[in-house]
Amino acid sequence: MDLWNTVLPYILSGISVGGQYALIAVGYTMVYGILRLINFAHGDVFMVAGLMMVYFAASMPLYAAIPLMILLTVLLGFTIERVAYKPLRTAPRMSVMISAIGVSYLLQNLALYVTGGLNKNYPEIPWISDKITVLGATTARVTVITPFLTVALVFALVYLINHTKIGMAMRAVSKDFETAQLMGIRINSVISATFVIGTFLAAVGSLLFFSNYPGIVPTSGAMPGLKAFVAAVFGGIGSIPGAVVGAFIIGISESLIKGLDTILITQGAIAEQMDFSTFSDAVTFVLLIVILVFKPTGLFGEKTTDKV
Amino acid sequence: MLKIENLQVAYGGIQALRGIDLEVPDGKIVTLIGANGAGKSTTLRTISGLVKAHAGSITYDGTELLGKPINAVLEAGIAQVPEGRRVFANLSVLENLRVGAYLRRDKAEIEKDLQWVYELFPRLQERSWQLAGTLSGGEQQMLAVGRGLMSRPKVLMMDEPSLGLAPLVVQGIFDIIREINRQGVTILLIEQNANMALKIADLAYVLETGRITMRGTGAELLADESVKEAYLGKKKK
Ligand SMILES: Nc1ncnc2c1ncn2[C@@H]1O[C@H](COP(=O)(O)OP(=O)(O)O)[C@@H](O)[C@H]1O
Ligand SMILES: [Mg+2]
Predict the structure, then answer these.
(1) What would the pLDDT profile of B7-42 be if each residue is shown by its tens digit?
(2) Residue B29, burial from CB neighbour count under 10 angstroms (0-12, 13-18, 19+)
(3) Which ligand 1 atom lies nearest to the CA of residue B38?
(4) Strand pairing of B63-64 and A215-216?
(5) B50 with A178: Cβ contact below 8 A
(6) DSSP 8-class letter at A13
(7) Domains of chain B
């Protein structure tokens, strides 16, 4: 088998995973951009979105379950901001971070309570889980859809931010709360809008992500959340294109490492399994360390992002 | 008329304003001078609703503004050009101006005001697509003033517009302030550069550690010996 055909499936799946990370990473980077807050609860909101889908799909048809899941996830993101972050608007940034960590554990514990800690099977979503053949490789349709959907959503978002009034307000608020207020911008509405967009993308991401996995447990949001966060930092936190590029790089690297044994064996480079796939998570963090050493602001990061 | 009575403001335990009275009659240039830390910015920030007062009143044409949200003050026709310009560095010049008109819905009128600001500051029109962060200090100040005008205010409050600018640039800004006033906008001007502020002011106040210690026409204060000594850098004879 030639190298290309061996590597291709891993690249495809890497692009797909990267797209899923990107949908989560945008939420981290937008919230950071506006509040300078690392929203530790974001990965758990993603997990809750997955769990909602499990329960909703069991009791109603998918065409109702999916919109309901997305709607309630968005509502959850909105509520978290209003209840746990907004009251701390003038508190030191560290207090808000601690509040975010608190929300993260709260969501995990609620999930534990609801599921009893049992692995919940994610519903089979027809059509997107169907197997198809692309460039000679067999894969689920979701693998192919994900990057296109991600890119389309991100383009829509970038358009919103750069060419609409609310987008202009978001950019103004991200620079200077007080002056934005002096212009008549209601900063709380703008911040809420940011959370709504971020959680909407995470909800879509959860649909794509969990379709590829057998099940969900209360900690299922932690690893993808962390990877997406790393992607956001890698790309330059606060930058949306940065988060997306970072997510694709991390998704592809991770997938290639997972497939490295197979690739090397079929190429005759090694004779037996070397268990490279064990390092697939580690490679993400190696990438993070490398970028932080050589370019601390990330690929697309601004030099100084602190507000006056 | 914008009227302030017995305004008291404290930050934590520190009294920044100890009951000040101030009148800004329509169509005039009123200046508030005072040393660093006297409470000048606090006065403007309280009028805009950014800072809460614990006593006093701020009325515009008889309507109480104190305790109202920031947007209500803006909608009443009082806009602020904050200290240090505070333009949105990540927005273009044009976007900064549009943000200034954020609360307005009258699209056609906004476009007219945009042309008005561009006439006042042709430099801004030349640079309308440039990011505000790339402008010089003087241009940023013009932008900050233009942004303030985009809400089409009745009263424009300016916090030390001459801060950190070269004398020639300052002269240009003061000329514009006069021009804006001539076109009917009431001006409340805060300055440490007392000399220039008093020269253009119809009415002037001196603020010292949270108290108004003097009031008069610009010319009266310019001629006053104690003002000369304290704020104009001239010795008593
Ligand atoms: N946010 C704040 N917190 C605490 N004290 C403040 C704050 N802003 C101003 N002050 C204090 O209030 C007083 C008046 O400040 P300010 O209004 O900025 O003076 P000015 O503009 O005349 O230089 C000063 O003593 C200053 O230290
Ligand atoms: Mg000041």
Answers:
(1) 999 998 899 999 999 999 999 999 999 999 999 999
(2) buried
(3) 22
(4) unpaired
(5) yes
(6) H
(7) 1-77+155-161+188-237 (3.40.50.300), 79-152 (no CATH)
